[in-house]
Amino acid sequence: AQRVTQPEKLLSVFKGAPVELKCNYSYSGSPELFWYVQYSRQRLQLLLRHISRESIKGFTADLNKGETSFHLKKPFAQEEDSAMYYCALSDKGAQKLVFGQGTRLTINP
Amino acid sequence: EPEVTQTPSHQVTQMGQEVILRCVPISNHLYFYWYRQILGQKVEFLVSFYNNEISEKSEIFDDQFSVERPDGSNFTLKIRSTKLEDSAMYFCASSRDGPSSEAFFGQGTRLTVV
C-alpha cells in the first residue's frame, strides 16, 4: 500500500539556519513525489515536484529511491518559510495524491 | 490567476441532514478531486472525477457520498445523512493532466456536524 510518512509534526529553527523536513514513502512502483505548502490563511499549493528538479524559494528535494526518501531542504531559513508542509505521492495508475501528515515549520527570528 | 473556488467556507449542519459542498474548478482543467482533513489528521483522498465519471474513490467514499458536475462548471460533493465524524475540512482540487500534474486546491469548506 502507498504510504507517506513525515516523522516530525513540528519543526522549529532559527532564521538563517538550515532546514530539513523529512519525508519517507512506501510504494512498490515508480512514484512521483511532491511537496505542497500551506501558508497561514492560504490554500494548499504546490511547492515543488521531484520530476522538475528545480529549486523553488530556495528549497530543493532529492528523490532517494534506495532510502525511499524525499526530504525537503533549504540552506538558510527565512521567516516567511513558516508554514505547514506536506509531502505527497502520486501513483501514475491511480487518480489521487497520498499525503503525509504534514510538518509545521516555524522559523524563529 | 485562476483559482479553485469553494462555497460555503463554513457549514454547520445537524446530524442526519444532507449537505452539498460546492466547487468551481479551474476552467480548462479536466480532473477534479475531493479531499478531506479531519482536525489534527492528514489530508485524505475521497474521490477523483474525470470525463463526467468517478475515476477512483477511497474506502471513505461510501454510499453516503456522491459527486456531480451538474452544469459543466460546478463540481459538488453531497453527503447524505451526516454523522459527527464527517466533521472536517473538505478540499476540492483540480488539475489539467491528472495527478502527476500540479493540483490546484480550493480554500476548503469547514463542515461541522452537531
Question: In words, what does this structure look like?
Answer:
The complex is a heterodimer of chains A (109) and B (114). The termini of chain A are far apart. Chain A has one domain (3-108): Immunoglobulins (Immunoglobulin-like). Chain A has strands at 3-5, 10-14, 19-21, 24-26, 32-38, 45-49, 60-61, 72-74, 83-90, 97-99, 103-108. In chain A, strand 9 and strand 10 (97-99) form a beta hairpin. Chain A has 109 residues and is an all-beta fold. Chain B has one domain: Immunoglobulins (Immunoglobulin-like, Sandwich), CATH 2.60.40.10. In chain B, the strands form two sheets. In chain B, strands 2, 4, 5, 6, 9, 10 and 11 form a seven-stranded mixed beta sheet that branches. Chain B has a four-stranded antiparallel beta sheet with strand order 1-3-8-7, with no helix packed on it. The chains are: A mainly beta (109), B mainly beta (114). The interface between A and B is medium-sized, with 20 and 26 residues.
Please outline what is shown here:
Helix content of chain A is 0%, strand content 44%. By secondary structure, chain A is mainly β. The radius of gyration of chain B is 13 Å and the shape is globular.
Major beta sheet summary of chain A: 6 strands, mixed
| Low-confidence spans of chain B | none
CATH class value of chain A: Mainly Beta
Total DSSP E strands of chain A: 11
- Apparent shape of chain B: globular
Please work out how many helical segments of chain B DSSP would assign.
0
Q: Biggest interface, which chains? A: A-B, 20 and 26 residues
**Count of structural domains of chain A:** 1
The tally of beta strands of chain B, per DSSP, is 11
What fold name goes in the CATH topology slot of chain B? Immunoglobulin-like
Give a short account of the largest sheet of chain B: 7 strands, mixed
Low-confidence stretches of chain A: none
Q: What integer value in Å does the Rg of chain B equal?
A: 13 Å
* Topology order of chain B in helix (H) and strand (E) letters: EEEEEEEEEEE
Specify the number of helices of chain A.
0
Strand content of chain B: over 45%
Order of helices and strands of chain A: EEEEEEEEEEE
